[in-house]
Amino acid sequence: MTTPFQKDFLWGGAVAANQCEGAYLTDGKGLSLVDVLPDAAHGRWEAIMNPQLALEGQYDFYPSHESIDFYHHYKADLALMAEMGFKTFRTSISWPRIFPNGDDAEPNEAGLAFYDDLFDECVRLGIEPLVTINHFDTPLALMKKCNGWADRRVIELYENYAEVIFKRYKDKVKYWLTFNEINMILHAPFFGGGIDVTKTANPKQTTYQAAHHQLVASARVTKLAHDINPNFKIGCMLAGGVSYANTCAPEDAWKAVEANRENYFFIDVQSRGEYPSYSKRFFKENNITLDIAEGDLEILKAYPVEFISFSYYSSRLVSADPEVNKTTEGNVFATLKNPYLKASEWGWQIDPLGLRTTMNEMYDRYQKPLFVVENGLGAVDTPTADGKIKDDYRIAYLAEHVKAMGDAIEDGVECWGYTPWGCIDLVSAGSGEMKKRYGFIYVDRDNDGNGSLARSKKDSFYWYKDVIKSNGASLY
Questions:
Q1: Which of 128, 181, 374, 433 is catalytic?
Q2: What number is the average pLDDT over the span 193-217?
Q3: How do residues 356-375 score in pLDDT, each as one tens digit?
Q4: What is the residue range of 48's domain?
Q5: Is 361 marked active-site?
């Protein structure tokens, strides 16, 4: 069968250290942002939006503390991924596992050794690591000391951390992402930047200043990476998803333009090397004056990223009419309910064609290779009496999205790979739940932390194995 995917297309899956590793204080690890967040039943989202609740609270259960204990199960888990045929595995390095306080004089050798072993196992199994340097994992100590990325000094601390891991893993890891969903700092500053904006006079000023620091840091480590190993491939990562106009009213059409610009703002800088023209008016109208140090604009221009990775779960729908703006439940991105789309159990609207649209729009805009590094369906999976997990709904979702990705490639979009999110069940970032499952591999763990942690294969495990083996030809 013919397939639009090139022979070396990187099929795989994605996780994040803070959502799967557990072992939250093992071998000298420091606290991460998520380590002070409770489960959904005790106000996780409220704590994300008001970090003082997280810093001051004493909760009954912290999901990240053990999670699925990937820290101690990674060899068996990677073996299952290899059985599916993974060509790549996207994970992240926990910054506080390497520098427990973010500003330590020396890195934590035990943390470095863990990732040595993890990447060695990937290489042994023929799986290419794709590593995110900061995936919502700024050390908690830096938030307490200096309000995280709001402080320019964090740039140098991040650069120091990146230098350590680049040199340590220069012969094991080729593909790197500087920040996970960098635009998330606008919607969840705690996650995105380890900052608390609730007590600042102008939250947007604080947020965009922190964002500037991250953009400068991204450019600096891109330079650093190429100095250490010219063969490194450095990419950015966007929480993607096209915004549609609610009606054909020109006001709604313009609202969609503004929504998409806000989403692409960071990638405009990381890919093109300069702030977009539309940012000037936005900054002026929102009383934002960036403190730009000497050399910042030059480093941004000189060291853009080489490829653009992004997550895609759903499209969005926007209106200029305040009476219409009743948001649906779901992701942190506010969106109207699209009457033409079905939704997941968590209110995320399912739009495979939106992935094709997003990919075409991004490639037209940047003309750089794309990498779909998150996509998937969060759902309640219930094992049958004999232990089977029949997740046909997940297979249907993923099949349609892989087809849409293939269509985009046939449209002329260059795409390097596909790593569906939560390829093994893990703790949800937003809700802290385990019942919101994405994986091909089921983990016996519930929302309260009960369960044996035993792994088992869902029906989608075998489906995805066939997809990879056929290079995307066998979808249905």
A1: 374
A2: 96
A3: 999 999 999 999 999 999 99
A4: 10-469
A5: no
